[in-house]
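Section 4.2 – Deliverable D4.2 (structural model, holo form)

The reporting period included a commitment to supply a predicted holo structure for the target in complex with S-adenosyl-L-homocysteine. Inputs used:
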Amino acid sequence: MKDTHKHQGLRNQLVKVIAAKGITDKNVLKAISAVPRHLFMDSGFEDFAYQDKAFPIAAEQTISQPYTVAYQTELLQLKPGMEVLEIGTGSGYQTAVLIELGIKVYSIERQKELFKKTKLFLPKIGYKAKKLVFGDGYIGLKENAPFDGIIVTAGAPFVPKALLAQLKIGGRLVIPIGDDIQTMTLYIRTGEKDFEKHELGKFRFVPLLKEKN
Ligand code: SAH
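Output (structure tokens):
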């Protein structure tokens, strides 16, 4: 599968759609217009890649909706060179969007099959993450902490304490919290022991699961 002018045209349309839904960060929109989402989809779904929808990938997981990816990314308020931890690598699409923004990305995935597939795939299309880890997102990645930003791309029943502890002061954690429907929640670390908490829109993610391996 290639990336063609036609795909670029479809991406420009997609960017208009998500801008109309309220995404304003120019760099985020630019990243969405750059990442060839069709290459991240399972065969059979490529034709739908530039619809603003989530789709199934391997292991009963999903590639997040582009609007949701843009929304979470915008909330992180990133600058090139920052270090971000992603929980739930999945297809690697969100990872690629972060890399487009000049971010050093650490990402954790708990499904072995997906982890292996995405670890091979991302460098093949030119995206180099700082570190892709097979492990449990609930415990984060202590050895590379603290992070400027942490993004959780699965619905969490509660905010894992380890993730709050792995934020820099001034750092931001974006996490959807809830069971069937989640509230996008932004934590900003304002001091060693102080966090600001903002509850934002409602979303629907696949669940953040406890370790099974
Ligand atoms: N960011 C992904 C979204 C994938 S869906 C993308 O852009 O495609 C959420 C992912 O979180 C799934 O791949 C799922 O396997 C993973 N996941 C669920 N629980 C997890 C956990 N405890 N630790 C790490 N990853 C987890």
